[in-house]
Amino acid sequence: MERFTISLFLFLLCILSFAGAAFSDGGSIGVNYGRIANNLPSAVKVVQLLKSQGLNRVKVYDTDPSVLRALSGCGIKVTVDLPNKLLFSAAKRQSFANVWVQRNVAVYHPSTQIEAIAVGNEVFVDPHNTTTFLLPAMKNIHQALVKYNLHNTIKVSSPIALSALQNSYPSSSGSFRPELLEPVFQPMLDFLRQTGSYLMVNAYPFFAYESNADVISLDYALFRENPGVVDSGNGLRYFSLFDAQIDAVFAAMSALKYDDINIVITETGWPSKGDENEVGASLENAAAYNGNLVRRVLNGGGTPLRPKADLTVYLFALFNENEKNGPTSERNYGLFYPSEEKVYDIPFTVEGLKNYRDKPSPVGGQRVSPPVNGGGNVSTSVSGQTWCVASGDAGKTKLQAALDYACGEGGADCHPIQPGSTCYNPNTIEAHASFAFNSYYQKKARAIGTCYFGGAAYIVTQPPKFGKCEFPTGYTEDKGMEGKD
């Protein structure tokens, strides 16, 4: 009887929330429901929370049965994920893809309204070298959807990080990394076109601002009133860093003649708390970014380059997740605490926007970092320069895998950390990984997303030193990379 009462309550809540919600012809707001935590509410309570806030789209990072069952019958559109660790199997065996779709999608749909499958996540920065398996896995998953006659209602794509771009500034110069063009992007965009799908993109203006706070206006990063930035290539004026980042991806697709493919922003957000070296991470800035983003999306309209393309945007993330590795910010992207209390008060619907006002306040999290962990001595702060270092919290296994990627496929200069070389000592995995990560980061011109390595790295604003090893200094637009190669 209790189970029936809960089910009836959820059913009525679904009907009432959708009947009373006021949506415009603008874009759509969804949310990422991550669960790397040990204190989150049950999936049933999470569905109640989503409905009470008027959120009608959710993206999950797996296909957990309890979550998909809780979302059944409620009309919330769901994007599920095939994890990176399953890409090899999905790529190599059609039978595996068929079984995965049958067990994780077909048995729940259409009661659970699955609208898309994200095959992998930010595969190009995965230290396990899964890039070559991405497209075959996407094709096999799509073929499995055809087998179960779901291909017309469920789209297949894969979220890319902005580090997949070779150039992103100005937006009009946007281009994909050359080594990914022929083997990945051209055939993947062909696949998206043929299947009527879209490109999934994870975009974080916070990372760009954190790394370049000396040259990027905070108002520009937070959608606040500002004079704008004119793109020297096409003459368009941008009033937000978010729009500029998205248009860099549109420009990269346009350069390959794929103007007909749309973009869905599968992740974006701003942390409400960070370490002292995480410039701009604060409660006030997170509230401003996400609140103003919701208003910008729901009021409709595309980007300067694609003005008619209404955007679908998934905020990251629903909850603060206390078991995530890395800097403090990683555990503080949540819109809600695990208690279901809002971290800050912003609306998610057109109706809620009627009374919403951004409340500018002093910017927090602007202090320069103390010495970074890992036994390194840190010299005086150098304004505007950033370095990439390994996170000791990531563990030796994850650091070693990321180190192997950086020194191998990543193309980092790892000669100085070989035995007998200047940076071999101290001979620790964290010191060696930090040097390799930073080499990769600087060679990529501090591009957004290039200091990630699956969560094994983070950015600092003072030059790290391990023993007598000096790291290359920061990148500046007018000088390129300074110091040692």
Q: Could you outline the blueprint of secondary structure elements for this entry?
A:
Elements: H1 2-20, E1 28-33, H2 43-52, E2 57-60, H3 65-70, E3 77-82, H4 87-92, H5 94-106, E4 114-119, H6 131-147, E5 155-157, E6 159-161, E7 165-167, E8 175-176, H7 178-195, E9 199-202, H8 205-211, H9 218-221, E10 229-230, E11 237-238, H10 241-255, E12 263-268, H11 283-298, E13 312-315, H12 350-353, E14 387-390, H13 396-407, H14 429-443, E15 457-460, E16 465-466, E17 469-470, E18 475-476, E19 480-481
Parallel strand pairs: 1-2, 1-13, 2-3, 3-4, 4-5, 6-9, 9-12, 12-13
Antiparallel strand pairs: 7-8, 10-11, 14-15, 16-17, 18-19
Helix pairs in contact: 1-2, 5-6, 6-7, 13-14
Q: Using the CA coordinates, give the radius of gyration.
A: 22 Å
Strand order of the largest sheet: 5-4-3-2-1-13-12-9-6
The major β-sheet equals: 9 strands, parallel
> Would you count the extended β strands for me?
19
- Beta-sheet strand percentage? 5-15%
Structural class based on helices, strands and sheet pairing: alpha/beta
In total, the number of domains comes to: 2
What is the helix fraction of residues, given as a range?
Answer: 25-40%
Number of helical elements? 14
Mean pLDDT, all residues? 86
Query: Briefly, what CATH class of the largest domain?
Result: Alpha Beta
N-to-C CA distance: 69 Å
Global shape: globular
The name of the CATH architecture of the largest domain is Alpha-Beta Barrel
In the predicted model, the low-confidence regions spanning at least 5 consecutive residues are 1-13, 15-25, 361-383, 475-485
CATH topology of the largest domain: TIM Barrel
What is the multimeric organization of the chains shown?
single chain
Protein name: glucan endo-1,3-beta-D-glucosidase
Organism: Ilex paraguariensis (yerba mate)
Catalytic activity: Hydrolysis of (1->3)-beta-D-glucosidic linkages in (1->3)-beta-D-glucans
Family: Belongs to the glycosyl hydrolase 17 family.
